[in-house]
Design goal:
alpha/beta; 17 strands; 13% strand
């Protein structure tokens, strides 16, 4: 990595060329990028569920039959050189995720809640709110298991002599906001609470994360079988990942927008959203999407970095593999709002894009999203998770849900080391220092501007931060002497003269030869 990194612009993450506003001529709608944000849709925050929900599936539990001790570092942690990054941070800052004023960077995790009692959080998980169920500890329990694993990738602090796994920013503070759950369903027997309505139950969506589930076993968590899921677990996600606003679960676009507004009002530094809404592109934008768009724009304008998972391939989320990137098959929010969101794709162990990671012109960067190791979300556990139970069978944890917190953790480190940078400048530093793909403009629709490079993001010189112009092509001096401007006229004249003389000689020889042949024979 060179000392100077090419810039994208003055503190702004611009849309790629393929994601500039594209108007569908038949209906005047938008496809690759949304219409301009309308702040009139910024929602108020009710701070409560949109309706009453009741638990329908047993919460995630530790699988004691596979209760082994995990002591290897996940490949993603090695790939990103986090051990070296942590040594750098401890040598140059007050901690790994601590600001110069001694305060921790605060990361809001909008998800299924966080098991705050896990010892490797060391009391650094704070209540942010709950849009699923009022349990007296808003956001501090995780029935599904998903949010705890996301938060663990961001801020777990494990003992080095016992475990190799660690969070990206192990000194950061987590603000947990429970916004969704597949283990809760609307309670038809109760009177709905007075919350925001809108898209409740109306937008089908794909969780950005699991591609097969949440919590793990074999050093992870299993769970109790739930109604209608023989042999499954409370954490199993029926193959396609959790849904946002779908029937039989908790969480809507409206409560997601409210959660973003709530986190912003709490003054957090980073928001991680490993939940998203997925639908077929139809050339328009829904009311719920407008509210979410206004919420994430409001967050960035209030100096909050918003990180979102790019989404997973599923039956409801068709891959954007069409020839024209400006006409996607699938729209995913909040990644669609690329001007205000760092959207994260997933790579696998080979370094290539994971087969489940949704493509799109809004993808910003990529991070590891397969063979995940994180904290075991089961209540009372002090271990790690690396597998999930799906219909009675275990499988590795994977998904763009778990790629996003790697980027959120990096954003926390950048905010700790460069507190003078605003949210857009932090976003720009992360994209500018990523490992750019070999594509026009250094980005593509698979990994965006490339896989994140934490060491470069924390050490490189970004031109616009120093008041320098962006990189451009220049003519480099050569070590060779200048070319001689030789006058070729004498050579041409000489060659012409030689050619004329040769022609005259040939003519003379021909004439002499002819005369000799026509001369009469001499008498002998």
């Amino acid at each position: 990595m060179t000392a100077t990194i090419g810039a994208l612009g003055p503190g702004l993450l611009p849309l790629p060329a393929a994601a500039q506003p594209t108007v569908a001529p038949e209906d005047g709608g938008f496809y690759a990028s949304p219409p301009p944000v309308d702040m009139g849709y910024l929602p108020g925050d009710t701070g409560q569920p949109d309706q009453n929900y009741t638990q329908k599936v047993g919460c995630v539990e530790r699988d004691l039959e596979n209760n082994i001790q995990l002591n290897q570092a996940p490949w993603g942690q090695l790939y990103l050189r986090l051990d070296e990054v942590h040594r750098l941070m401890r040598g140059t800052t007050k901690g790994v995720g601590i600001k110069p004023n001694g305060q921790p960077v605060r990361v809001a995790v909008i998800d299924t809640g966080v098991t705050a009692s896990h010892p490797f959080f060391e009391g650094r998980v704070k209540s942010g709110g709950d849009y699923v169920k009022d349990t007296g500890q808003p956001g501090l329990e995780d029935c599904d298991g998903h949010g705890t694993e996301v938060a663990g990738i961001i801020a777990a602090d494990t003992p080095e002599d016992q475990m190799k796994f660690t969070g990206v920013a192990p000194d950061a503070e987590i603000i947990s906001i429970r916004q969704s759950s597949q283990n809760y369903a609307p309670d038809d027997s109760a009177t709905p609470s007075q919350g925001a309505g809108g898209d409740a139950g109306g937008q089908s969506g794909g969780d950005a994360g699991d591609a097969g589930g949440d919590a793990g076993d074999a050093g992870g968590a299993g769970g109790a079988s739930g109604p209608g899921r023989p042999g499954g677990t409370g954490a199993a996600q029926d193959g396609g990942g959790r849904t946002q606003g779908d029937e039989g679960s908790a969480g809507t676009l409206d409560t997601l927008a409210q959660a973003v507004v709530r986190a912003t009002a709490m003054g957090v530094d980073v928001i991680n959203v490993s939940i998203n809404n997925c639908r077929s592109a139809d050339g328009g934008i829904t009311e719920g999407e407008k509210r979410l768009q206004a919420a994430v724009h409001n967050a960035v304008e209030n100096n909050v970095v918003v990180v979102a998972a790019a989404g997973n391939l599923s039956e409801k989320c068709e891959q954007n593999d069409q020839p024209d990137a400006n006409a996607p098959k699938t729209i995913v929010t909040p990644p669609w709002f690329a001007e205000d969101v760092l959207s994260v794709a997933a790579i696998d162990k080979t370094g290539g894009v994971a087969d489940f990671s949704l493509n799109g012109p809004w993808v910003s960067v990529a991070a590891p999203g397969t063979e995940i190791i994180s904290l075991d979300p089961a209540e009372g556990s002090s271990g790690l998770a690396n597998l999930t139970i799906e219909n009675g069978e275990s499988q590795p944890i994977k998904g763009t849900s778990f790629a996003a917190p790697y980027v959120a953790g990096l954003a926390a480190l950048v905010r700790a080391k460069f507190p003078e940078l605003n949210a857009r400048e932090v976003m720009n530093r992360i994209t500018s220092t990523a490992q750019h793909p070999a594509a026009p403009g250094g980005r593509d629709n698979f990994v965006g501007y490339g896989v994140i490079d934490p060491m470069a993001a924390l050490t490189a010189t970004v031109p616009e931060e120093e008041g320098l112009p962006p990189d451009s092509a220049v003519a480099l001096p050569s070590d060779m002497p200048p070319a001689a401007d030789r006058n070729w006229t004498p050579v041409i004249v000489a060659l012409a003269g030689s050619g004329g003389a040769l022609t005259a000689l040939l003519v003379t020889l021909f004439v002499v030869h002819t005369i000799r042949r026509n001369r009469p024979a001499e008498p002998r």
